[in-house]
Amino acid sequence: MTHVRAVGLPRWLFVPAALGATLVLLPLVAMVLRVSWTDFPALVTGASAQEALWLSLRTSATSTVLCVLLGVPLAMVLARTSFRGQAVLRSLVLLPLVLPPVVGGIALLYTFGRRGLLGESLEVLGIQVAFTTAAVVLAQTFVALPFLVLSLEGSLRTAGERYDVVAASLGASPTTVFRRVTLPLTLPGLVSGAVLAFARALGEFGATITFAGSLEGVTRTLPLEVYLLRESDPDGAVALSLLLVVVAIVVIGATRQGRVPR
Q1: Each residue's pLDDT tens digit, 236-246
Q2: Residue 94 has what DSSP assignment?
Q3: Could you tell me the pTM of the whole model?
Q4: At what angle do helices 234-255 and 222-232 cross, to 10 degrees?
Q5: I need a labelling partner for 124 at 20 to 30 A (CA). Which of 10, 14, 69, 189 fits?
Q6: Are 113 and 210 in contact (CB under 8 A)?
């Protein structure tokens, strides 16, 4: 066995490090021990569980696409420009990272709800957003977008602008520079951000239940299904929770394939 010696690392740091790891791992171990493994396949393959899972996967994939379409330009503007109020804009864009999700759900409800800022006009056009599958996608995008922006912005700042400047000096248009130079250089950060956005969307609960409700087959995602089962079927709730944990582990493993900016 090969031992890696950490140069300059105080030995006492291993104690709080071990405590931190235990704090994260022990609840997961407790959940694994609580699962009824003989009933696990039946619990995670029930009709309602499967419907909630596929709804979560569909909406999370859609919201991730929206995060890429909106987040890439936003990260470019934040990383490659300088203007008055930029720091304020960045703070507002990253606000969902620290904002309680239920507060985000209320904000979305008062924006797209029937009596909301835009919802009233949409109702006149016959478009209803709140308490629909579209509301789930919007809620997931709202909470997941900052993850992609933060990851890609860090990657853009690390890459710098020297190659962009060279390409522009050789006559490449801004769109060509963006497509042929900037994106390839920052692709690991973009992939990592997209994967993290997907994971965040998949686990979204607070904003979804506030803005979209919990309608089976329409807005009831897997986290909402877990919440509803915790009283009526604790074994089912634990089994579905473990399923979400497994998906999260797979997603985190996928981010290791690219460099996550620090």
Answers
A1: 999 999 988 88
A2: T
A3: 0.88
A4: 150
A5: 69
A6: no
